[in-house]
Amino acid sequence: MGSAAADALLPLDASRFAAESRAVVDFLEVYYRDIESYPVWPDAEPGHLRTLLPDMPPEDGESVDVILEDVRRHIIPGLTHWQSPNFFAYYPMNASTAGFAGQMLSTGLNVLPFMWAASPAATELEGVVVDWMARLVGLPECFLFSGGGGGVLHGSTCEAVVCTLAAARDRALSNLGHEAILRLVVYASDQSHYTFQKGARIVGIPPSNFRVIPTLAGSAYGLTADSVHEAVKADVADGLVPLYLCTTVGTTGLGAVDPVRDLGEVARQYGMWLHIDAAYAGSALICPEFKDYIDGAELADSVSMNPHKWFLTNMNCCCLWVVSPALLTSALSSNPEYLNNVGGEGAAEVVNYKDWQIALSHPFRAMKLWLVLRRYGVAGMRAYIRRHVDMAKWFETMLEADERFEVVVPRRFSLVTFRLRPRHEGRDDMEALNRKLLVAINGSGRAFMTHFVVDNKFVIRMVVGAAMTEMRHVQDAWELVQDKAKEVQATP
Amino acid sequence: MGSAAADALLPLDASRFAAESRAVVDFLEVYYRDIESYPVWPDAEPGHLRTLLPDMPPEDGESVDVILEDVRRHIIPGLTHWQSPNFFAYYPMNASTAGFAGQMLSTGLNVLPFMWAASPAATELEGVVVDWMARLVGLPECFLFSGGGGGVLHGSTCEAVVCTLAAARDRALSNLGHEAILRLVVYASDQSHYTFQKGARIVGIPPSNFRVIPTLAGSAYGLTADSVHEAVKADVADGLVPLYLCTTVGTTGLGAVDPVRDLGEVARQYGMWLHIDAAYAGSALICPEFKDYIDGAELADSVSMNPHKWFLTNMNCCCLWVVSPALLTSALSSNPEYLNNVGGEGAAEVVNYKDWQIALSHPFRAMKLWLVLRRYGVAGMRAYIRRHVDMAKWFETMLEADERFEVVVPRRFSLVTFRLRPRHEGRDDMEALNRKLLVAINGSGRAFMTHFVVDNKFVIRMVVGAAMTEMRHVQDAWELVQDKAKEVQATP
User: Do B75 and A367 touch (CB under 8 A)?
Assistant: First the structure.
């Protein structure tokens, strides 16, 4: 495009769209082909990009080729390559051909299912897909639309948590009056994701009313019913109101699992809202061998999991299921005139997703998850998960057979937590040593891992879960860990 | 894919990725070519899709061709076609070739700039792009990173509003103590988007402390400083604490504009947080002829606008700028151990976007907005906006020249509000008549418009803003409106 007149833009001209989109597909094809050759974690300095780019966008439009060349030169070298098969950090953030195809369709159609009438088929597909996922994950019928519950596709767990906290809060305040907001208490473990603390603060719970209950190695860092019970009893004695209990299946740091049934019984006894956060491990629950981890889910009020983590669904997509949609929508609904639909009056019984979430607008995420489920099938997804679990198991076995290392917490899914054993006593030495080991691993560019600290132990986290990871990458990572361990142990 | 083994998935095999992605590009190419032939608003019954789809995903994966055929048969006919050139409803939700390309890159790379270290170039590009947009929109330097402020790309205005409300609330409570949450008051007009009311409720402001201040035809439905001042004085006299004032440039129903400078002065006087919501009209502010509408922006604490509406940036993308990032991050930040970055310690001064938003995770939206700005350029975007404004002006002129119609509120941007004038006195008759007119327009499938109610008037809203809309579509819409008016006036 030369000097830009409006007509020259033709922003959705079909053949121009196709030509430029194909150029991007070609670009990404090369990216995926070459991705192993990039250092997983870039060697970038803060501010490096700003110095390379101008202060203002160009006056006249540029060609897609020029822009893609800049992506290649300026952006790619400064990225952490989350899709690299050698990415073992955080938790995975899966891309896939089907997830990408679904996002393309969603982005291309660019419709908004915020109300049924604003795009009927998009709203309905979301209802179908969340029911599919609920059945796959093994949730009880009460979380399905057919069982009086229902689900929605949010962008993140944090959003799901804020919405459920608001629903729980408003249920409580409708009985107690708004002043009681100062007396509401939220319970989580010291292993819960910080999103619960952030979410509780966002919805106005006093920060001093957030209880972080310690967990212990003896219960594999799962929350015990007794410890929650003690905390709740103390609060009730102080005139406070237990509101919300967070449980996690597969915690962020260590992959720990809270005992859902035991905690559910405590929650029931005190009328608390029980949420199950299965952001990462929810994907594993589609395999029958992991189903016991959500035994007792019928005692929960809400469950969430992120297909954008380990379920081949490109960013972003978080399933939230609730037993009582009415509690959610009464906290989040509104009916301004500009959203009433003339001619859509017969649709009183439909789902309007704007009332299930923070935002009004809501991308057509169902298309993406639908594509993944249909393209890969249930058997394919189970095999995909099991392959990662098996590779993690192999890595754990290698560590266990090597006396230099210890596995810190027994592996449950595809996260292995390990560290170098101390050669000498003293915590400082060990932390420094393992920190040096992690820096050496990541500095090699051949793998990227992150860490966690538990019981004063500096732990290296190695998660198998990137879509491209094969056995040879895990074997390479194990060799890398051994080599770097030798290096750091050799230096004083 | 036949019977699915894990190896057969190859979720990111480069050549398979390219082949299947090209099939989707081809599908969308046909969709855009044929889009004019679809009824804009579908004739769909609630529940229609669920009966067509099975209760469970398939056991084995299916081919992309089979899935695309189902999209064609089952999904497309049930969609409201937001990208149709005959879509004149709500506000637009622009797709474009460049926006799509940017989303493809973001989705394909699938990196997460939630922390600088988690993808340095993606974080930095976001900083560059929000500064570009701030300059384009004409915001004062205090909203730029270089001026001590800064911006972030959220998914929606609602998210931006919740974050700024939380920041304002926590600033107040840090002085007054958490009990004061019961005394905080938020002010908006009866034309403000309901997201403010929803947001205030989400962050725990008592619903009875949300003031909806009436606007009048005499001020073109803009909020007056006097009316706000009166409301604030009354609340202060009652011992309440004025917290947050919402102003809008281009309201949802009528496109009204609040006088930013006058309201900013009231906000300053009482120490209130001032937010400017320019979700739709923010795009027009890139044209110098509209800049006066944000005169006084230096008195605001935050500003938001949605490139996903009228700026050719596919869903979703909302720019939020703040004068004080520290107020935002102190309400939303947290530093759990699993996010500390070994080897990234030198990066203390970097932006970590997880602390600027509700969620931890955060798609690489900057890529999308960067593509749009570079591909179309400043001149191209200005011409694009002006072309829509000119078409809306033409439509308004036609209405004014036809004595059957009245323009209800003078047009400011690309929204025209109109109705049939009464032939007989009496409100019931007029509302019914105009409602019939709107049903007839939308029922034709040839255009889709929505409505609003102001001062008991049922108003039809006609927004020019879809990316494909050309003069001939607006002319067709005008013919359609005239024909349907004749029809409904002829029937008793």
Answer: yes
